[in-house]
């Protein structure tokens, strides 16, 4: 099939081309509209307020004194003078070992000493009249001193065969029987001072001023509805470098024997009332890899501030460092916030009474 072009067809094509060119020339690229980067967020005004604070932690009850009863020397047990689970007093004899050979040696040394003392008395009279030399007299005196040393050593060995309680306490289950030959590594039993207990617990090092000696704290134990009291005895002078916690110890009066050593304790430490505490909503705290921050609205811009936090309540956090009264912190839009971002506070909240 063949197409025929007339002069009218060419004119029409030229007209369409000119019209399309004029359309392209008339249409101009519109510049992109600037995006709205202002953050609309709610704020919280930080104001000082009275904060009655306390810290809850866990601890363990320990005996006030505890030892394993071991002999100082090897020997055969001749007497066990304690009853398992009974209370013993300081100085009570618990165990006797065979010591007849040591007693015999002591008697022999005492007899020799008595003889040498009589000789010394006679030699002293002879020395006054020149009947003996001074050297003979001094030899006798030296022999008496040597016997005294032997007696002291034998008495020390004899005392090792008699094991006594070093303090008042309750003795545990015995591990030996009469007639057993024991060594210094043999554990005969354990002795615990149970009418006075220790309570060991830890707390963050920032609260070191709250564990002063003599301060009263409260605690509970599993299986009991009672709340018990304890008095702080001391705290370690330095914190653990890995956990940044401080170890403290309190003493517990347990004369009624309601508590036992080894129990797990829930400890409550009352803090001094802070009359100018700065508290912020917990959702305003932004955790980072190294520290914690809050976003402050200042002059229409966002300012990121690093803070040190203290105790938490159900919905508030105590800020120890980093904020000042009157600061307005952001409580919403935390995920989008960036330093120096323009911000508009749409709603302001103030401190709530605790």
Rounded mean pLDDT is: 88
What portion of residues is helical? 10-25%
Form type: elongated
What is the total number of structural domains? 3
Widest β-sheet, arrangement of strands: 2-17-21-20-19-18
Series of secondary-structure elements, N-terminal to C-terminal: HEEEEEEEHHEEEEEEEEEEEEEEEE
In percent, how much strand structure appears in the residues? 35-45%
CATH 2nd-level architecture of the largest domain: Beta Barrel
CATH topology of the largest domain: OB fold (Dihydrolipoamide Acetyltransferase, E2P)
Radius of gyration over all CA atoms, rounded: 45 Å
Largest sheet: 6 strands, antiparallel
Q: Which class of the largest domain in CATH terms?
A: Mainly Beta
Query: Structural class of the secondary elements?
Result: alpha+beta
Contiguous uncertain segments of 5+ residues: 5-16, 22-26
Compute the number of strand runs. 23
> DSSP helix count?
3
Separation of termini?
A: 96 Å
CATH H level of the largest domain: which superfamily?
RNA polymerase II/Efflux pump adaptor protein, barrel-sandwich hybrid domain
């Amino acid at each position: 099939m063949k197409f025929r072009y007339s002069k009218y067809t060419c004119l029409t094509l030229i007209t369409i081309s000119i019209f399309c060119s004029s359309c392209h020339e008339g249409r101009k690229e519109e510049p992109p509209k600037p995006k709205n980067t202002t953050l609309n967020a709610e704020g919280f005004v930080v104001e000082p307020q009275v904060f009655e604070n306390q810290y809850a932690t866990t601890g363990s009850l320990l005996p006030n004194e505890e030892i394993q009863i071991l002999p100082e020397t090897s020997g055969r047990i001749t007497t066990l003078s304690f009853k398992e689970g009974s209370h013993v007093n300081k100085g009570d004899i618990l165990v006797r070992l065979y010591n007849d050979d040591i007693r015999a040696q002591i008697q022999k040394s005492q007899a020799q000493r008595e003889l040498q003392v009589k000789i010394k008395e006679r030699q002293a009279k002879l020395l006054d009249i020149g009947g003996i030399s001074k050297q003979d007299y001094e030899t006798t005196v030296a022999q008496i001193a040597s016997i005294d040393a032997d007696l002291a050593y034998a008495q020390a060995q004899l005392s090792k065969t008699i094991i006594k309680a070093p303090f008042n306490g309750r003795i545990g289950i015995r591990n030996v029987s009469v007639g057993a030959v024991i060594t210094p590594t043999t554990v005969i039993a354990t002795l615990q001072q149970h009418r006075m207990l220790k309570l060991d617990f830890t707390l963050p090092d920032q609260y070191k001023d709250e564990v002063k000696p003599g301060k009263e704290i409260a605690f509970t134990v599993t299986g009991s509805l009672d709340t018990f009291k304890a008095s702080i005895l001391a705290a370690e002078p330095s914190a653990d470098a890995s956990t940044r916690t401080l170890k403290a110890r309190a003493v517990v009066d347990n004369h009624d024997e309601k508590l036992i050593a080894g129990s797990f304790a829930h400890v409550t430490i009352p803090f001094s009332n802070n009359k100018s505490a700065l508290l912020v909503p917990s959702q305003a705290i932004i955790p980072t890899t190294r520290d914690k921050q809050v976003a402050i609205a200042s002059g229409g811009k966002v300012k990121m501030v690093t803070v040190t936090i203290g105790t938490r309540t159900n919905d508030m956090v105590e800020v120890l460092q980093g904020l000042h009264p009157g600061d307005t912190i952001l409580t919403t839009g935390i995920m989008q916030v960036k330093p120096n971002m323009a911000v508009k506070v749409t709603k302001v909240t103030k401190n709530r009474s605790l």
